[in-house]
Amino acid sequence: MSKDNLRNNRENANRKYGLSPSNFNSFSNNKEYNSTPSNRFYTASEEVTLRFYQVPKALFKNPKYKELSLGPKLMYSILRDRLELSIKNNWKDEKGYIYLIFSGEELIQLLTIDEKTAIKYKKELVKYALIIDKRVGQGNSNRIYVLKPDAYSGVSGHRFRNYPDSCSGNIRTPCQLIKFYSNKLLFSMNLFLFSIITNPLYSFQP
Question: In CA terms, which of 46, 127, 157, 185 is 20 to 30 Å from 139?
Protein backbone atom coordinates (compact mmCIF):
# COMPACT_ATOMS: atom_id res chain seq x y z
CA MET A 1 0.00 0.00 0.00
CA SER A 2 1.36 3.39 -1.00
CA LYS A 3 1.96 6.29 1.38
CA ASP A 4 -0.89 8.24 -0.26
CA ASN A 5 -3.30 5.40 0.38
CA LEU A 6 -2.20 5.18 4.03
CA ARG A 7 -2.69 8.90 4.48
CA ASN A 8 -6.12 8.79 2.85
CA ASN A 9 -7.19 5.85 5.02
CA ARG A 10 -6.02 7.73 8.15
CA GLU A 11 -7.91 10.88 7.16
CA ASN A 12 -11.05 8.87 6.40
CA ALA A 13 -10.84 7.19 9.80
CA ASN A 14 -10.39 10.55 11.52
CA ARG A 15 -13.44 11.97 9.76
CA LYS A 16 -15.48 8.85 10.60
CA TYR A 17 -14.78 9.10 14.33
CA GLY A 18 -14.69 12.90 14.49
CA LEU A 19 -10.98 13.09 15.24
CA SER A 20 -8.50 15.76 14.21
CA PRO A 21 -4.95 16.73 15.18
CA SER A 22 -6.41 19.27 17.62
CA ASN A 23 -8.55 16.50 19.12
CA PHE A 24 -5.41 14.46 19.72
CA ASN A 25 -3.78 17.43 21.53
CA SER A 26 -6.92 17.99 23.56
CA PHE A 27 -7.03 14.31 24.47
CA SER A 28 -3.40 14.47 25.59
CA ASN A 29 -4.10 17.57 27.72
CA ASN A 30 -7.19 15.97 29.26
CA LYS A 31 -5.15 12.88 30.10
CA GLU A 32 -2.58 15.02 31.95
CA TYR A 33 -5.37 16.95 33.65
CA ASN A 34 -7.11 13.80 34.88
CA SER A 35 -3.90 12.07 35.96
CA THR A 36 -2.51 15.02 37.95
CA PRO A 37 -3.12 14.73 41.74
CA SER A 38 -5.64 17.26 43.07
CA ASN A 39 -3.17 18.67 45.60
CA ARG A 40 -1.03 19.99 42.73
CA PHE A 41 -3.73 22.45 41.61
CA TYR A 42 -4.38 25.89 43.11
CA THR A 43 -7.81 26.42 44.64
CA ALA A 44 -9.43 29.52 46.09
CA SER A 45 -9.01 28.34 49.69
CA GLU A 46 -5.44 27.07 49.34
CA GLU A 47 -4.27 30.23 47.57
CA VAL A 48 -4.83 32.13 50.82
CA THR A 49 -3.05 29.63 53.07
CA LEU A 50 0.04 29.02 50.92
CA ARG A 51 3.19 30.80 52.01
CA PHE A 52 5.39 32.71 49.58
CA TYR A 53 8.59 34.69 49.67
CA GLN A 54 7.62 38.23 48.74
CA VAL A 55 9.89 40.59 46.83
CA PRO A 56 9.06 44.33 47.05
CA LYS A 57 8.18 45.87 43.68
CA ALA A 58 10.59 48.72 44.41
CA LEU A 59 13.51 46.35 43.81
CA PHE A 60 12.37 46.04 40.20
CA LYS A 61 10.81 49.45 39.52
CA ASN A 62 13.23 51.81 41.25
CA PRO A 63 16.19 52.59 38.93
CA LYS A 64 18.39 52.64 42.02
CA TYR A 65 18.24 48.83 42.12
CA LYS A 66 18.54 48.31 38.37
CA GLU A 67 22.00 46.76 38.65
CA LEU A 68 21.05 44.54 41.59
CA SER A 69 20.95 40.95 40.31
CA LEU A 70 18.17 38.45 40.98
CA GLY A 71 20.22 36.44 43.48
CA PRO A 72 20.50 39.21 46.09
CA LYS A 73 16.84 40.13 45.51
CA LEU A 74 15.82 36.57 46.33
CA MET A 75 18.08 36.58 49.39
CA TYR A 76 16.44 39.84 50.49
CA SER A 77 12.98 38.25 50.22
CA ILE A 78 14.11 35.32 52.40
CA LEU A 79 15.61 37.64 55.01
CA ARG A 80 12.52 39.84 54.96
CA ASP A 81 10.32 36.79 55.50
CA ARG A 82 12.32 35.93 58.63
CA LEU A 83 11.20 39.20 60.25
CA GLU A 84 8.02 37.44 61.34
CA LEU A 85 10.01 34.99 63.46
CA SER A 86 12.09 37.79 64.96
CA ILE A 87 8.97 39.71 65.96
CA LYS A 88 7.51 36.55 67.49
CA ASN A 89 10.71 35.98 69.48
CA ASN A 90 10.94 39.67 70.40
CA TRP A 91 14.41 40.00 68.87
CA LYS A 92 14.94 43.74 69.02
CA ASP A 93 17.77 45.97 70.16
CA GLU A 94 17.79 48.82 72.66
CA LYS A 95 16.33 51.16 70.02
CA GLY A 96 13.48 48.81 69.22
CA TYR A 97 14.86 47.82 65.80
CA ILE A 98 14.05 44.25 64.76
CA TYR A 99 17.05 42.11 63.81
CA LEU A 100 17.54 38.60 62.47
CA ILE A 101 19.73 35.76 63.62
CA PHE A 102 20.31 33.97 60.33
CA SER A 103 23.39 31.83 59.85
CA GLY A 104 25.28 31.80 56.58
CA GLU A 105 24.94 28.02 56.41
CA GLU A 106 21.15 28.27 56.46
CA LEU A 107 21.15 30.83 53.65
CA ILE A 108 23.47 28.61 51.62
CA GLN A 109 21.10 25.66 52.00
CA LEU A 110 17.97 27.63 51.19
CA LEU A 111 19.44 29.24 48.07
CA THR A 112 21.49 26.17 47.10
CA ILE A 113 24.60 28.29 46.56
CA ASP A 114 28.17 28.09 47.82
CA GLU A 115 29.68 30.19 50.60
CA LYS A 116 31.47 32.55 48.19
CA THR A 117 28.21 33.38 46.39
CA ALA A 118 26.33 33.87 49.66
CA ILE A 119 28.96 36.36 50.85
CA LYS A 120 28.76 38.16 47.49
CA TYR A 121 24.95 38.47 47.71
CA LYS A 122 25.11 39.83 51.26
CA LYS A 123 27.73 42.39 50.26
CA GLU A 124 25.47 43.57 47.43
CA LEU A 125 22.56 43.98 49.82
CA VAL A 126 24.78 45.99 52.16
CA LYS A 127 26.02 48.08 49.24
CA TYR A 128 22.46 48.98 48.23
CA ALA A 129 21.52 49.74 51.86
CA LEU A 130 18.97 46.93 52.01
CA ILE A 131 20.48 45.21 55.06
CA ILE A 132 22.94 45.98 57.85
CA ASP A 133 25.18 43.07 58.85
CA LYS A 134 26.26 43.98 62.38
CA ARG A 135 28.89 42.11 64.33
CA VAL A 136 28.08 41.58 68.00
CA GLY A 137 31.15 39.78 69.28
CA GLN A 138 33.37 36.82 68.70
CA GLY A 139 31.55 33.49 68.66
CA ASN A 140 28.14 35.07 68.16
CA SER A 141 26.12 35.24 64.96
CA ASN A 142 25.87 38.63 63.33
CA ARG A 143 22.70 40.63 63.69
CA ILE A 144 21.09 41.27 60.33
CA TYR A 145 18.86 44.32 60.10
CA VAL A 146 16.52 44.25 57.10
CA LEU A 147 15.99 47.78 55.80
CA LYS A 148 13.04 49.06 53.82
CA PRO A 149 13.83 49.71 50.14
CA ASP A 150 13.42 53.20 48.73
CA ALA A 151 9.95 53.49 47.26
CA TYR A 152 9.54 54.72 43.71
CA SER A 153 6.43 56.43 42.37
CA GLY A 154 7.24 56.08 38.69
CA VAL A 155 5.84 59.58 38.06
CA SER A 156 8.21 61.98 36.29
CA GLY A 157 11.13 59.92 37.50
CA HIS A 158 10.85 61.23 41.07
CA ARG A 159 9.92 59.61 44.31
CA PHE A 160 7.13 61.01 46.45
CA ARG A 161 8.50 62.92 49.39
CA ASN A 162 6.95 64.27 52.56
CA TYR A 163 7.12 68.02 53.01
CA PRO A 164 6.90 69.72 56.42
CA ASP A 165 4.13 72.18 57.08
CA SER A 166 5.83 75.38 58.25
CA CYS A 167 2.80 76.37 60.33
CA SER A 168 2.07 73.25 62.33
CA GLY A 169 5.22 71.19 61.94
CA ASN A 170 3.20 68.27 60.57
CA ILE A 171 4.25 66.24 57.55
CA ARG A 172 2.15 66.72 54.41
CA THR A 173 2.03 64.49 51.35
CA PRO A 174 2.01 66.04 47.82
CA CYS A 175 -1.76 65.47 47.54
CA GLN A 176 -2.34 67.21 50.87
CA LEU A 177 -0.11 70.10 49.79
CA ILE A 178 -2.10 70.60 46.58
CA LYS A 179 -5.35 70.66 48.52
CA PHE A 180 -3.85 72.98 51.16
CA TYR A 181 -2.57 75.59 48.72
CA SER A 182 -5.68 75.32 46.55
CA ASN A 183 -7.78 76.25 49.56
CA LYS A 184 -5.45 79.17 50.34
CA LEU A 185 -5.68 80.40 46.75
CA LEU A 186 -9.47 80.12 46.77
CA PHE A 187 -9.63 82.04 50.06
CA SER A 188 -7.39 84.80 48.65
CA MET A 189 -9.55 85.13 45.54
CA ASN A 190 -12.73 85.37 47.60
CA LEU A 191 -11.11 87.99 49.83
CA PHE A 192 -10.06 90.00 46.77
CA LEU A 193 -13.57 89.90 45.28
CA PHE A 194 -15.08 90.89 48.61
CA SER A 195 -12.75 93.90 48.86
CA ILE A 196 -13.79 95.05 45.39
CA ILE A 197 -17.49 94.78 46.16
CA THR A 198 -17.24 96.59 49.49
CA ASN A 199 -14.80 99.30 48.35
CA PRO A 200 -16.67 102.56 47.50
CA LEU A 201 -14.18 103.32 44.73
CA TYR A 202 -15.42 100.27 42.84
CA SER A 203 -19.13 100.76 43.52
CA PHE A 204 -21.34 100.97 40.44
CA GLN A 205 -23.62 103.96 39.92
CA PRO A 206 -27.15 103.34 38.59
Answer: 127
